[in-house]
Specification:
The strands form eight sheets. The protein has a four-stranded antiparallel β-sheet with strand order 1-2-3-4, with no helix packed on it. By secondary structure, the chain is mostly beta strands. Helix content is 12%, strand content 36%. Helix 1 crosses helix 2 and helix 2 runs parallel beside helix 4. The chain folds into two domains: 44 residues, no CATH class; 383 residues, Regulator of chromosome condensation 1/beta-lactamase-inhibitor protein II (Methylamine Dehydrogenase, Chain H, 7 Propeller), CATH 2.130.10.30.
């Protein structure tokens, strides 16, 4: 369908390049469509040819690579990121707002004071941001020019917790070590950071000395290193970082695939075992399921994928029912969520022990840990656990009826992905309205809480326009 549309567009108006008589009509049409993509436009002829060879020697494959990346990463669109205790919102024009916990300067306002309402990061004026990532005490932003800005804690790994003296960066600073890499996405885990280049190459840094990730590095090494192994010559369209592992959605001539690397505890790497993987390894189960992955999500201890046909697969640690299979058992290979058999999914998001699925009609389903009311099921029963009350866990996908009341399709869900914080959740609607629910004790909902409240059970609109 994409190619048909590209061909029609190609014939309706003059092309943006000189004729190349060695290319077929379909290849010319695909190249014409590539040149209309924001990421492709600034590439030099040499860079374009390199990308073409990396994608398999065809402009049609390059176009598929570019479209796949846009579809799963919301590049050039508005987005909201629910980080551990703080939040980042990016408008469709590239303006950035932040709010919530700020003990490390992770809001980027030049202070360490909490913000309970969305506040624009003024120092970024004139810079258009297209993507954001939030981790424990730190934030990364990516501009449309492929440059990366970071602020908050400049150290990575578990050793930073409770350790005094770590350098704090309270305003966005250009990451010098990435200046020569055109970055389009960043992902922050608890032990590492990964970035994805325009050409589909993955770089990681600060993985630490205990679990090396495809290259030899020390815990204080903040230089980016290309991820070695199977993905060296395969273009990646999306990366997702969990607590101590990384997933990569790769685009190959034979179709889309998922690779995993890092800690295998709980079976979250998807290979049928719990062993660690130092180098990226193909998750073979998707071929057996005849499923073409289009979106990948990495929770702290579990993972999820949406297929082109709308099926959802989950795997990893099943605690609190976060896999949606009706129990709390672990799954060491991807397993289709049968309870969503009548739902065509287009988006999935994972957190600590929670999962959200968005359907093609804009409906939202959630399951997993009910702490902090972050699942959106405020009417769910509350159970006692001997340490006070907490919201009930949900073992199978349940429609978030509270989001039906906004009377508008939801296009994106983002939720806290850290074991150190009570979770909060954002729902972004088709028209750019942002709704928040869950824990809000640090202002991370962007909503003023009253009467000693620490959370919001029902979605409430955040006073910010993202379109």
């Amino acid at each position: 369908m994409c190619l048909l549309q590209a061909t029609c567009s190609f014939f309706r108006q003059p092309a943006n390049f000189s004729p190349d008589y060695e290319l077929s009509i379909s290849e010319l049409a695909a190249l014409d469509m590539c040149q209309k993509r924001a990421i492709f436009k600034p590439m030099t002829p040499e860079e374009r040819q390199d990308l073409k060879q990396r994608c398999g020697g065809s402009w049609k494959l390059v176009l598929r690579f570019l479209l796949a990346g846009e579809a799963c990463c919301r590049r050039e669109k508005s987005q909201a990121i629910a980080g551990p205790g703080h939040s980042i919102a990016v408008t469709s024009k590239g303006v950035v707002y932040s709010f919530g916990s700020n003990n490390s300067g992770q809001l980027g306002h030049g202070t360490t004071e909490e913000e309970w309402r969305p506040r624009q990061i003024r120092s970024l004026q004139g810079i258009r941001i297209i993507q954001a990532a939030a981790g424990p005490g730190r934030t990364m932003l990516i501009s449309d020019a492929g440059q990366v800005y970071a602020f908050g804690k400049d150290s990575f790994g578990e050793a930073e917790y409770g350790v005094q003296g770590a350098k704090l960066v309270t305003t966005p600073q250009l990451v010098e070590s990435l200046k020569n890499i055109f970055v389009v996405q960043a992902a922050i885990g608890n032990f590492f950071t990964a970035v994805l280049s325009r050409e589909g190459r993955v770089y990681t840094f600060s993985w630490g000395s205990d679990a090396k990730l495809g290259h030899q590095t020390e815990s204080n090494d903040v230089e980016p290193h290309p991820l070695l192994g199977a993905l060296e010559n395969i273009p990646v369209v999306q990366i997702a970082a969990g607590y101590c592992y990384l997933l990569a959605l790769a685009c190959q001539p034979s179709g889309m695939s998922v690779y995993s690397v890092g800690c295998g505890l709980g079976g979250k790497l998807g290979h049928g075992s719990r062993t660690d993987e130092k180098y990226p390894r193909l998750i073979e189960q998707f071929q057996l399921l005849n499923l073409q992955p289009t979106v990948v999500a990495a929770g702290a201890w579990h993972a999820a994928v949406v297929g082109r046909d709308g099926r959802v697969c989950t795997w990893g640690w099943g605690r609190y029912g976060c896999l949606g299979h009706g129990n709390e058992e672990c799954e060491s290979v991807p397993k289709v969520v049968e309870a969503l058999g009548n739902v065509k999914a287009v988006h999935v998001a994972t957190g600590d022990y929670t999962t959200f699925v968005v359907s093609d009609e804009g409906d939202v389903y959630s399951f997993g840990c009910g702490e902090s009311a972050s699942l959106g099921h405020n009417a769910a029963a509350v159970v006692a656990d001997g340490q006070g009350n907490r919201h009930a866990n949900v073992l199978s996908p349940q429609l978030v009826t509270s989001l039906k009341e906004v009377k508008e399709p939801v296009v994106q869900i983002s939720l806290t992905n850290s074991i150190y914080w009570n979770a909060h959740t954002f729902a972004l609607t088709e028209s750019g309205k942002l709704y928040a629910f869950g824990a809000g004790d640090k202002g991370q909902l962007g909503i003023e809480l009253v009467n000693s409240q620490t959370e919001r059970g029902n979605p409430e609109m955040v006073d910010i326009g993202l379109i």
